[in-house]
Amino acid sequence: MSIQPQTDRVIIFDTTLRDGEQSPGATLNVEEKLAIAHQLALLGVDVIEAGFAAASPGDFAAVKTIAQEVGVSGGPIICSLARATRQDIQAAAQAVQYAAHPRIHTMISTSDIHLKYQLRKSREEVLAIAKEMVAYAKSFVDDVEFSPMDASRTDPEFLYQVLEVAIASGATTINIPDTVGYCTPKEMAMLIQGIREHVSNFDNVILSVHTQNDLGLATANALAALENGVRQVECTINGIGERAGNAALEEIVMALQVRKPYFNPYFNRPVDSEAPLTNIKTQEIYKTSCLVSQLTGMQVQANKAIVGANAFAHESGIHQDGILKHRQTYEIMEAASIGLPENRIVLGKHSGRNAFRTRLQELGFQLSEADLNKAFSRFKEVADKKKEMSDWDLEAIVRDETQIQVENAFQIEHIQVICGDSTYPSATITVVTPERQILTVASVGTGPVDAVYQAINQLVKIPNQLIEFSVQSVTGGIDALGTVTVRAQHQERIFSGQASDTDIVVAAAYAYMNALNRLYRYLQQSEPTVSADFATTVH
Ligand SMILES: CC(=O)SCCNC(=O)CCNC(=O)[C@H](O)C(C)(C)COP(=O)(O)OP(=O)(O)OC[C@H]1O[C@@H](n2cnc3c(N)ncnc32)[C@H](O)[C@@H]1OP(=O)(O)O
Ligand SMILES: CC(C)C(=O)C(=O)O
Ligand SMILES: [Mg+2]
User: Single Gene Ontology BP term (predicted)?
Assistant: First the structure.
């Protein structure tokens, strides 16, 4: 693959394996780098900056292996970074030489602050080094990229001088780094315009930009550069990189895709041109993001644009309602376009009836309007305590709210439990009897559930034996709903009860009361006089 200067599309230069790996803690071994490089090739990046060959034997091996195995004919350009020193350039050349399309990327700082304090060199010395080292890199490969480090804080006049010299010495790509993420988009636009106006020989090279994210402006700055004639962007998957990271590949690519009519004119294309602006197979984005996150250990924040867990998730009722009626009301791109199977409607405290009903229908529940309303109120109560409601939670709620309720039965009004390792577990329960009496009692027990059951037994004196008690967490996580199932035996008959709550003691109380109410209903039907006694006994 050869890339022509000032191409009418964007060259995607991926530096996940070089600048991305500079994220503290993100170090990758050779196998891991190779796995990511294979995926980057599938994603369709034009250039892979595979590492900094002079940095360590491991990085040399990684660049070499990637050059051999991924840099095949028809594959991406494989590049290594090198300081403007003979040693670094030699290492880079030796590592990338196996690629069908090798590139050496050499750089030297140009800002006064870097010259004075880091390099401790004069402008004349830096100019001479740039000239000599670009030519030296060119002696190994045709494809040489040059970066004036800290370009955005460099005196423009000196920057133009350095760039002219680098181009004259054979650089084929000129990369403008905003090394410390200092630029604003307007300043970036002016910087690029200045270079295009003042560097006489730049028409023969590809102009590139490398934006860091220290002020959260990396993507905005990269796009501003593209609007002003830059044709290569340097970026990383998930935006990882030194300090606050680099421009995120997925953000740039999807911005160009989603806003194609906006960007087309900057590439001399008709507004409505359908042709893609990059070679990226966007359906591979999500997979690549997951692989990079997994291997670097750098988690993607949930609200990260494009690849964050919430990027295609909708929680609020108004948005969910809109999405269910017409997806584009609240989505500017489809989940499938980045390789996610579908968007997500997340049920939580902000959800509305439409989303709730739709999810229940998908789960196979056809509820009457009355049952739906009952279930929805319970759903809101539980959602107030839980971050996200799972399908299991919904099933538990529907089961609780739609199971046949015993009319005129005992109802729990209030539960309070005290327990701990240095106190007797005790429970205070208020129950409304079938005769509408409100009764309160306190009791101690061997544990909080036992205390609750002792208290209920004092109020509802229906003889029974608890023969089974089980708790099940229906969802994962600390805020899971717990479902309690109890079986109570009266003479030969067994009555079961079940209830769910984020508080398992509360669920236990309701489950037991549920079983007792069934037993009470049975007694009402089979022994009306006996049941009347239970209902009116005051304690
Ligand atoms: C903005 C960026 O992301 S630039 C890339 C940053 N990435 C890395 O640094 C990762 C790889 N780096 C390394 O492994 C090491 O720093 C090495 C192998 C490159 C150099 O290690 P050391 O020789 O021990 O030098 P050290 O890292 O302490 O200091 C850097 C030296 O390079 C010099 N230097 C920095 N940039 C350049 C440059 N572009 N060209 C030439 N010399 C440079 C510094 O002035 C300093 O020289 P000094 O020791 O004479 O003062
Ligand atoms: C090596 C250069 C391009 C770099 O990473 C930077 O300046 O941020
Ligand atoms: Mg950088």
Answer: L-leucine biosynthetic process
